[in-house]
Amino acid sequence: MGVELATDRPGFYEMVDVDVSDSELVYHVRDALKSVSQGDSDHYNQLIAVMHYTGRLAPDEVAMLVTSLKALSGSISYIDIIHHESLLSSIFGMSMWNYGPDVMDALVELIISLAASNGKFVDSCLDMLVRNFTPPKSYLDLLGHPRGLARKHEVLDRVHSALSHIADLVPLAPMRLTPIILQRMPHMFDKETLIVIYVESMLRLESSALGEFVGSTMLMALVDRLIDLDVEISWDDIVLEDSGKGIFDMELEDVDDIIGYAEKDGFEHPRGTLGRQSLGTNAVADKLDSLMVLACEHLKSCADGERLTKVFETLLQSFWVTILNAYKSKFSQFVMFYACSLDPEHCGERFAVFLADIFVCRTHPALTRMSAVAYLASYLSRGKFLPPSLIASTLKRLVDWCLEYCQVQNGEEKTLYPETHRVFYSGCQAIMYVLCFRMRSMMDSHRLKSQLLHMPLEPIFRHQLDPLKVCLPSIVEEFLRQAKAAHLFTVSETFLFNNLLESDLSKAFGGMERLDMFFPFDPCLLKKCDRFIRPSFVYWSMVKTTYDEGEDCSSEEDINEYFDGNGKSYMDGGITRSLDEHDLDLDEFECQLNKMSITPRNSLKNGLINKLENYMRMPARIRPSTSPESL
Amino acid sequence: MEGLKVSDANLVVYIHPSKAGKVSQSILRELSTLLFKYNEIFDGVVLAYDVTIQNKNAKVLPGIYPCFGVKLKAKMLLFSPKPDMLLEGKVVKLGKESLHVIVLGFSSASIAEEDIREEFRYRIKHGEEVFASTSHKRHVIKVGSMIQFLVKSFDEEILHISGSLIPVNTGSTKWLHKNMEEGSMVDRKKKRKDDRSEMHEHSTELLDDVGFSLKNEGRPKKSKRQRHAEQS
Predict the structure, then answer these.
(1) Which among A601, A612, A594 has a CA at the least distance from the CA of A494?
(2) Which family does it belong to (chain A) (predicted)?
């Protein structure tokens, strides 16, 4: 319609043809607008037709559009919301992505003037600008090309500067902007590029001057979206692949190969074999991955701009409201992990204290407290950036709480009721889990060693509530082993777990949600955002245990050799991810577990056995990217 | 400046039982949801409030959530511009066809070309766009000047004022103060300063709340309220 009509309309065209001054054109447009209420809509309709120019525009059409828009900017007070409804809807329907910079500028000028002139137009103007966060569907594929990218920058720069201009002229605009942005946020089943480009604009707003007003809502909406996507990824999607190699020979590059095979073969891998764990091709996971990358990049820029502390508060609130109580959030929490790694002193500590506070506070529901302590345990164990003093002080807090709880329990029950004392058991398990990771490093430090030795662990673990029987056997076993080697304390009875992953009692205290097997900061399986997490992450293979007597770790080559980055023991990978029993046959699983275990059944300190141990653990190649000093 | 008034109000704020431990905080939170919104009962935009709790005893409202009602006395600072009032604001945008002004830092006002009297002509002086008076050389309006204008209409939803510079006593306040001898002008200036500082305090409070109160919309309303306002 657009192109043909231009030549059909001698009236308008002629006016532009004949070298008319801007002000005359403005009067012409004003007349056109005024005459609508008097019943004469000819010129008015011609004006609307100009707005509908589509496709590749010839230079004179571009000129026509630009001059019409400018003339409209000059006639703002003549635009009536009722009489000129079709003109307004045409203007608000225009997508800046379809035009060149000249038209964009004129259009933006018009929108700003409209918003400032009359309160009734503000919402529609803001809505139009927000709609321009994303290109038309047909344009999405072009975004990958340099031309598309250039257009994207042209449009978004103008959109954001328009928003900030409107905020200057109409101070209450940001308040009205927030619900519009939330309403227009792409649905999680929309295309990935669409979601990503919209969230980019949301985060850009957060760092802009408007961020003061809309920033916190943007962040919270983003975290909500992360959780929405997270929840959609089912555990079935976490593909267990047959590596065919020993677990410690697995290296990062090989993983990519394996994923390649998986895609070729269509996942024809026997279930129940535990090799590498990764996410197969999964659209939802990809979307989550891309959004996590955006979030991490944004946090990095906040840290560079020294805004992180403030942003972190919002993030923490959002975490509490959204992530903490989400049933087994898989990866979204890594946003918190990354934020803490950027500022260990403030944010890192704040997060630990926050979680500990929730755990000890009696007014929170039991599930929230158990979840919080699970997060805390995983966080303290996995955060490479955490100062040992913080870990020690938080541990002390947990220990003190558990001790107090023990002292309050007086009964002489012979039977254990794990569910009644589930908060206590989750606290004990958290202590054990953290100590599995950190005991050696604490024992190596003189000050922390004395702190640790003074902690009243024995009364807790020997109490008749018997946490050693109830908590997850795999953790208890590892803990006892290390505690024995460190002479922390000994237990009179020997626990024979036979490498059990879980027991009936642990299931009882974990409850339906299986919070006994919740380790939220286990290695992140998302490929793209992993690069943010990896440098500050403690893998189990990197952990020195108290019974590792043979290693001195003074030479750097030794360290290199033991860190293959993805070497899994039963601490990583196995128990933590495979949670649904219907997916795995437990016997087969245990068999694999035995194969994978780096520690032999009996803890022998015999030098020969140790050498064999070390030999078993030696990976094939030195991986500079995973060694600590390269970080 | 006209349009500002202080009213006394007797209020009852109903508080959810879970907030019984932090009553003052929740009262302030409830009242801050009123800020910068036009309120029919008060007939104005609430800019600031000063609250005193009348009675430590509160009546419990029977129902599913036994909210308890705290009686308060509040002084409310209200902004209610009516047509033909004179307001002052700062010019933020100046164009041939219109003038955009911000009043008290939060309310936007626009004056269209046809509402600017003939005396003022649009000019570009020293590269800057101005409205210069043809009869008085020093009377100039440019971006950043404070002007006094007449209210034509007030949009209560977006708090947008449509203004006019037709009357003779409108224009740049600096020039008007110098040339129009009105003693009360000085008093009005002082009052404006006080109002603005009080308003700024509460505006920052609101802006913090906006982020969270929008999230709270999903949750059920925590308190029912009845308001009785008495205007002194």
Answers:
(1) A601
(2) Belongs to the RRN3 family.
Which has more confidence, B132 or A258?
A: B132
Determine the angle formed by the axes of helices A42-51 and A22-37, rounding to 10 degrees. Answer: 120
Residue of B nearest to A77 (CA): B112
A77, A118, A171 member nearest B106 (Cβ): A171
CB contacts under 8 A, A 205-244 vs B, are: 212-217, 220
Distance CA A103, CA A169 (A): 22
- The answer to whether A193 and A140 have CB atoms below 8 angstroms apart is yes
- The answer to whether A110 and A91 are in contact (CB under 8 A) is yes
Q: Are B51 and B72 in contact (CB under 8 A)?
A: yes
Instruction: Band the pLDDT of A221: cuts 50, 70, 90.
Output: very high
**Helix boundaries (H) for A80-191:** 85-93, 101-117, 119-131, 146-169, 173-183
Tell me the two tokens of residue B100: 């955009």
**B92 contacts on A by Cβ (under 8 Å):** 168-169
Spans of all domains in chain A = 22-152
Q: Coil, strand or helix: which one is A310?
A: helix
Of B68, B73, B72, the C-alpha closest to B14 is B68
**Residue A306: CB atoms within 10 Å:** 9
All structural domains of chain B, each given as residue ranges with its CATH number in brackets, are 4-79 (3.30.1490), 85-174 (2.40.50.140)
Number of other residues whose CB lies within 10 A of the CB of residue B219: 7
User: How far, in Å, CA of A399 to CA of A286, rounded?
Assistant: 40
CA distance A578 to A519: 12
How many other CB atoms sit within 10 Å of the CB of residue A345? 11
Provide the b/e sequence for A428-448 (b: ≥16 CB within 10 Å): bbbbbbbbbbbbbebbeeeeb
By the CB < 8 Å criterion, does A322 face chain B? Answer: no
Q: Which residues of B touch A214 (CB under 8 A)?
A: 211
Higher confidence at residue A263 or residue A57?
Answer: A57
The pairing of strands B59-60 and B68-79 is: antiparallel
Query: What 3-state class would DSSP assign to A253?
Result: helix
Instruction: Indicate the residue of A119, A120, A169 with minimum beta-carbon distance to B93.
Output: A169
Q: What is the overall mean pLDDT for chain B?
A: 81
Closest-CA distance of chain A to residue B78, Å: 17
**Are B36 and A220 a contacting pair at CB < 8 A?**
no
Alpha carbons A198 and A188: distance in angstroms, whole number: 12
pLDDT above 80 (res A616): no
Q: Which residue of chain A is at minimal alpha-carbon distance from B92? A: A169
Q: Is A179 an interface residue toward B (CB < 8 Å)? A: yes
Which tokens hold the place of A386?
Answer: 């955490």
Radius of gyration of the CA atoms of chain A, in A: 31
**Out of A75, A76, A216, whose CB is closest to B211?**
A216
Q: Return the residue of A nearest to B90 by Cα.
A: A169
A126-140, A151-165, A238-252, range with the lowest pLDDT: A238-252
Q: DSSP 3-state assignment of A628?
A: helix
Rounded Cα distance, A193 and A190, in Å: 9
What residues contact A594, with CB distance under 8 A and at least 6 apart? A499
C-alpha–C-alpha distance, residues A469 and A465, integer Å: 9
Report the phi/psi class of residue A525: left, alpha or beta, with left for phi > 0 and alpha for psi in -120 to 50.
Answer: alpha
Burial of A69 (0-12, 13-18, 19+ CB in 10 A): buried
| Contacts with A175 from chain B: Cβ below 8 Å | 36, 210
**Tokens matching residue A415:** 């039977």
Question: Are residues A172 and B112, on separate chains, in Cβ contact within 8 Å?
Answer: no
Read off the pTM: 0.76
CB A340 within 8 A of CB A311: no
Residues paired with A320 in a beta bridge: none
Complex ipTM: 0.73
